Amino acid sequence: MMTLKVNGRDHDIDADPDTPLLYVLRDDLKLNAAKFGCGLGQCGACTVIVDGNAVMSCVTPLLLLEGKQVTTLEGLGTIEAPAPIQRAFMEEQAAQCGYCIAGMMMRAQALLQKNAKPTDAQIRGELELNLCRCGTHMRILRAVHRAARLMQTADASPAPGSAQ
Amino acid sequence: MNAFVIPDRRSVLKGGGALIVSFSLRNAFAQEEGAAAPKPPGSLAQAPYLDSWIRIDADGSITVFTGKAELGQGFKTAFQQIAAEELDVPFESLKVVTADTGRTPNEGYTSGSHSTPDSGTAIQNAAAQVREILVAEAARRRGLPAENFRTEDGMVISPDGERFRYGDLIPAETLHVRARPKSVLKDPATFKIMGQPVPRVDIPAKVTGGAAYVQDMRLPGMVHARVVRPPSYGAELTACDSAGVEKLPGVVKVIRDGNFLAVVAAREFQAVKAMKALSAASKWKETASLPEQQDLPRVLTSLPSQDTTIFQRSDPSAVGRITIEASYTRPCQSHGSIGPSCAVAQLTDGVMTVWTHTQGVYPDRQGIAEMLRVPLESVRCIHVEGSGCYGHNGADDAAADAALIARALPGVPVRVQWMREQEHAWEPFGPAMVTKLKASLDGNGAISDWNFEVWSNTHSMRPGGAGSMLAAQHMAQPFAVPAPKPLPLPEGGGDRNAIPIYRFPNAHVVHHFIPAMPLRISAMRSLGAYHNVFSIESFMDELATAAGADPVEFRLRHLEDRRGRDVIEKAAQEFGWRKGQQAPPDRGFGFAFARYKNLAAYCAIASEVEVNSETGRPRLVRAVAAVDSGQVVNPDGLTNQIEGAIMQSMSWTLYESVSFDDTRITSIDWQTYPILRFDSVPESVEVHIINRPGLPFLGSGETGQGPAAASIANAIANATGKRLRDLPLTRRRIKDAIDA
User: Fold this and answer.
1) Pick the CATH number of B214-287+335-426 from 2.60.120.10, 3.40.50.1450, 3.30.365.10, 3.40.50.300
2) B312-333: per-residue pLDDT in tens?
3) How many interface pairs between A and B have CB atoms less than 8 angstroms apart?
4) What is the mean pLDDT of residues A148-160?
5) Alpha helices in B223-293 (DSSP H)
6) What confidence tens digit (pLDDT) does each residue in B601-632 have?
7) Is A18 left (phi over 0), alpha (psi -120 to 50) or beta?
8) DSSP string of B375-408, one letter each residue
């Protein structure tokens, strides 16, 4: 049994310490956003934020997360009160099937938390680790640029449950 | 197992009350009898009752039914627009129910860019006829002629302003009438919802962690299963000591049925661990049956084939002076869904319900029922979105896996998800193809004769029968893989788009249909059109070069189709294409065009590609597309499809080929099967739409793939002076061509 902090709340988790975070998020905490894509850290569909860094949850075992703060897409905002990056992806209609999108958003969110005004090249460089198969890349780039602008103009204080 | 009949919507209604159709409506909608009676348009021809498509309840709620499956194309939103427009109700006021054998019409597969032409057309016409019934009923109640009534916002309004809510006008059963062949459709000039970039209804949940996919389903008491697939085609399980696996934490059951092996556990990661242990405890006898990978094109042209001339035109007066020939090849390619295939199944009261991201719930039901040896009525397949599939991937196989496992655990919902290497090794690939072209130019630089041969195969091994599904093939009493059949023209399969759209005085097109392929293959987005358009449009550039002509001007010289000419001219103009243009150093311009299937949407794409002359690395810098998909329902949705086509086709074209040794598939993850990543994403992609108000929907999911491939290939040739004809056009191949 260990305590895992996810989206600002403590959860008691009863799982083997080698269990990848992804399965704990999906199975134990019933969170949908992080997706199983490869289980190999090759596609990024499972990306979440751990202590401010984008992490592939499918290859991050539970035992490494003691005392760390995990943020998933659910922790950024809700369908009623979306976070800037969620608004940006809606406004740019940046999805086709959308299976990769939560992971894309979390990696972009981690970048924007560290670098509020990334260049286009920096965004591309960061998203390099995440795969999209529908070919929604141009919209994803536009959405990340839009999110950066929205975050600039949004209230400087973080949204409830956000990954600060 | 006892057969159990699922009560469908209609029999429930019949039980609940009499079918009420008023006399006037009966007369107005009496179907003309007789064999020669024209059929209503789209899928209404196969499912002619209006209430198969639209239901209006007494509380005014409206439900629209489609037998097509939302795969990420966004048509669910488009269909809602169509229905809202023709019914004259607010967009938000109705909901769309997609493919479900218990609720929706049977529209076969969601494939071939057919969704909007077939289902969208049916919904549009059904909605128009329903609106007419509503108006007729309001007019009848007032005893006034219907002509002066109008509809607005879910109400019929009489000439003196009396308002009738739709839900109050008719009981739902009234719509159980056959559609007439012709509908009175709205004037496109009055459209308020169709033609607008309405935001997709599914995106908010997808970007906030809502349950959006079959992978996200969590039924009460659900368990997790993993399959241990054979290591290679035809491998036989010779030994499996599962005793140790059965003792692992959480393991509920190990299932073995011939060569089908699976394990069920309470929690998902327990199932993954148990799968690995079960795999280690299994011994397989494998057979080396695969050809040398590099030799695949030669193997294809030497396999037994059924040869058919599919097009012939002769004009002896046209005489060629210069003749050139070329051959183009395509390897097997993966659908490569980001999310491995998944399904949930539950056997309850003798009915197997399967939640699946299949493209065809009805064919899957047939296959699963046959596999389980139960009547059709004992299986219900419900579509739930999955990761994008781009054709026949592992979805149907995962559905069969789930059903076979759930049969062993009655009452318990079973969720199966494939592992990455299973999806990569076992999905039916987009088939390898070979084309050989030969053409002559006359003294005026026009093509005088054209010869095209394509070696390919069915491009569809989709279910219907159980034998198409892996689980059924691997069972102890296996089902035989059905004999591959060519898909008929005019749409075709391997010969899709093999017949040129251009006007040549002499033309000869031969389809060499290969029944038996060395690898498991099936439908991948655009089928043979991808390679045939790549071949034709590359060769058109080779001919233009031989004729000393500009590629755009050369195409227009041979094209009569007005709408085709329009998209070519539009793409060229928006790109800034100029005759005699010179690309910057290490860059090239390319152009290509096709009308998908020669009967669907038109698409022309101009591109600019940079080639690093040191490394050979190609990079698409920008692409400009023009598309004519008929009447546009949602312009942003159409743009999204074309952008996606360009990016996905670029990935196929520059990077992708399935690899294998003499026994096993060796491209089993994203390192061994690399695809497009963000460092190769272009600077810009523009899509220009030519809308055709009032003309039929042409579909758009597959129109861009062929032109994108050829446009990029032509730009590489323009940049390097070297023509590459073997897909994929990798950095290595370009470098070798430059150095040659």
Assistant:
1) 3.30.365.10
2) 999 999 999 999 999 999 999 9
3) 180
4) 71
5) 243-246, 268-280
6) 999 999 999 999 999 999 999 999 999 999 99
7) alpha
8) -GGGEEEEE---S--SBS-SHHHHHHHHHHHHHT
Of B337, B385, B643, the CB nearest to A133: B337
Interface probe with B: pick from A46, A99, A111, most Cβ of B within 10 Å: A99
What span, in angstroms and rounded, lies between the C-alpha atoms of B481 and B406? 23
Residue of A nearest to B213 (CA): A99
Contact at CB, B669 and A42, closer than 8 angstroms: yes
In the three-class reduction of DSSP (H, G, I as helix; E, B as strand; rest coil), residue A158 is classed as coil
* Model confidence pLDDT, tens digit, residues B42-81: 999 999 999 999 999 999 899 999 999 999 999 999 999 9
CATH number of B9-201: 3.30.365.10
- Contact assignment for A134 to B204 by CB distance below 8 Å: no
Q: How many CB atoms lie within 10 A of CB A7?
A: 22
Judging contacts by C-beta atoms under 8 Å, the chain B residues touching residue A42 are 420, 669-671
Cβ contact B72–A96 (<8 Å): yes
> How far is Cα B660 from Cα B664, in angstroms, rounded to an integer?
6
Longest dimension (CA), chain B: 85
Place of tokens 């296996």: B478
Interface confidence (ipTM) of the complex: 0.95
Q: Which domains does chain A have, with CATH numbers?
A: 2-75 (3.10.20.30), 84-153 (1.10.150.120)
- Pairwise CA distance, residues B397 & B419, whole Å: 13
Sheet holding B251-257, edge to edge: B251-257, B260-265, B223-228, B414-417, B342-348, B351-356, B379-383
Phi, psi of B380 (to 5 degrees): -125, 130
pTM, entire model: 0.94
CA distance A19 to chain B (A): 7
Closest CA to B658 of B285, B234, B296: B296
Quote the minimal CA–CA distance from B262 to chain A in Å.
Answer: 19
Question: Cβ B209–A23 below 8 Å, yes or no?
Answer: no
Return the residue matching tokens 């002559």: B440
A99, closest residue in chain B (CA to CA): B387
What's the gap in Å between the CA of A4 and the closest CA on chain B?
17
Q: Do domains B9-201 and B214-287+335-426 have the same CATH topology?
A: yes
